[in-house]
């Protein structure tokens, strides 16, 4: 065999290795950060009452006012004990679909505002991201002005201009939010 006969397959193999080594999904770019964040959020819902258990009983007037907006939206029904000024809330048939946490959609990252230079932390290159997002797949009740007035955090997230921060770790398959 002549040396040229080995040279062509060797050069082709090196070209394939170089392409694999330069995995573009792991490059520190805004587009890759966006993909990593959106992949993370697609299965993670935002919830109005992340720690709620029903029946929910309260004597706090501010909490009763907030819960009464969910009564008006037909998600909860209320019974009262006037002697002790207590209200007891339970989900309606409509509310049972969302109870007990009343999740209202998931984040979709729209822009990467800033990213730190990736640096090794916890065994991976990590970066700190600041981003803007919108809420996707929100039910009608979450868009209600009354519910948003009672739950300002919901209103901010539903505003279309919400922002947050996240840590992303560089992996072979792209950028991911570490668990």
Automatic annotation (TrEMBL):
It comes from the Bacteria. This is Lipoprotein.
